[in-house]
């Protein structure tokens, strides 16, 4: 059975607002919440790695694994230390996952093929740079 385009928005509304007393947040509100969450993750991550003498550049690229964890992508000179400090921090993992869910929601609401399932090889990334954090999706290995 295939879902009809646009069916996801009402489904999200029912998830976000299960009763009639609340109004679902607008796309702009969800996008703003996603950006705030991204900033929260960035501040927490930079605080953790800064306490261990790690600074940017080079930029740091973190991605969500298929197991639901956070991992370092690419070659970073302090990758092992960052992994030990950041990827094992419960609060960082929570902020990362919250940002991932919110950006996936924004992405779903913005796309015309909102009912298309997420591809198995898609990955959510957060890049930490000297100019600020960036959230993005990639496909591929």
Give an overview of the whole structure:
The structure is a single chain. This protein is of the alpha+beta class and 141 residues long. It has a domain at 31-101 and 117-139. 43% of the residues lie in helices and 18% in strands. It is built from four helices and four strands. A four-stranded antiparallel sheet has the order 2-1-3-4. Strand 3 (122-129) and strand 4 (132-139) form a beta hairpin. Helix 2 runs antiparallel to helix 4. The two termini are 29 Å apart.
Brief write-up:
With about 140 residues, the chain is an alpha+beta fold.
Write the layout of secondary structure elements.
Blueprint: H1 8-16, H2 27-50, E1 60-64, E2 70-73, H3 79-85, H4 90-110, E3 122-129, E4 132-139
Antiparallel strand pairs: 1-2, 1-3, 3-4
Helix pairs in contact: 2-4
* Rg, Cα atoms, Å: 17 Å
Oligomeric state, counting identical vs distinct chains: single chain
Structural class by helix and strand composition: alpha+beta
- Show unreliable segments: 1-9
Strand content: 15-25%
C-alpha geometry: globular
Would you count the extended β strands for me? 4
Distance separating the two termini:
29 Å
- The order of strands across the largest sheet is 2-1-3-4
Main beta sheet strand tally, sense and closure: 4 strands, antiparallel
């Amino acid at each position: 059975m295939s879902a009809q385009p646009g069916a996801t928005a009402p489904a999200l509304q029912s998830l976000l607002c299960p009763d009639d007393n609340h109004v679902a947040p607008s796309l702009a509100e969800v996008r703003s919440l996603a950006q705030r969450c991204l900033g929260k993750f960035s501040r927490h991550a930079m605080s953790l790695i800064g306490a261990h003498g790690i600074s940017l550049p080079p930029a740091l690229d973190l991605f969500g694994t298929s197991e639901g964890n956070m991992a370092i992508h690419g070659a970073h000179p302090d990758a092992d230390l960052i992994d030990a400090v950041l990827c094992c921090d419960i609060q960082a993992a929570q902020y990362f996952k919250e940002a991932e869910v919110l950006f996936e929601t924004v992405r779903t609401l913005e796309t015309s093929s909102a009912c298309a399932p997420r591809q198995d090889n898609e990955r959510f990334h957060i890049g930490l740079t000297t100019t600020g954090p960036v959230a993005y999706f990639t496909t591929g290995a």
